[in-house]
What we know:
YaeB-like fold; 3 helices; 5 strands; alpha+beta; globular
Amino acid sequence: MSYKVITSSETVRDIEEAVFYKEGLGVYPENVVNFKQAVVSTIRKLVDSPKIGANLSARIDEETEIKYSVIDDYILFYEIEADTVKVLRLLPAKTNWMNTILKYL
Length: 105
């Protein structure tokens, strides 16, 4: 079964900000490219295998259907609804991502 993947405008902005931040820190250009490719690859994999991510409810005290996947030093959050995967956010792992993602519960 193939799923339809919808990437939110927030996620697109998050990806752009992550790339801007990495470039600003002087990360080697090839590592920035590798990061972008990893993000795109992960999102593409959701078409065929959206259940590969970990369940967020195992990490927080809330019951949720949100899943996550770690990409370098970022976390990609998404939710499966029937035959659609909604990519919610790409947030830095070292920030207080929980406050941001709890808005989706």
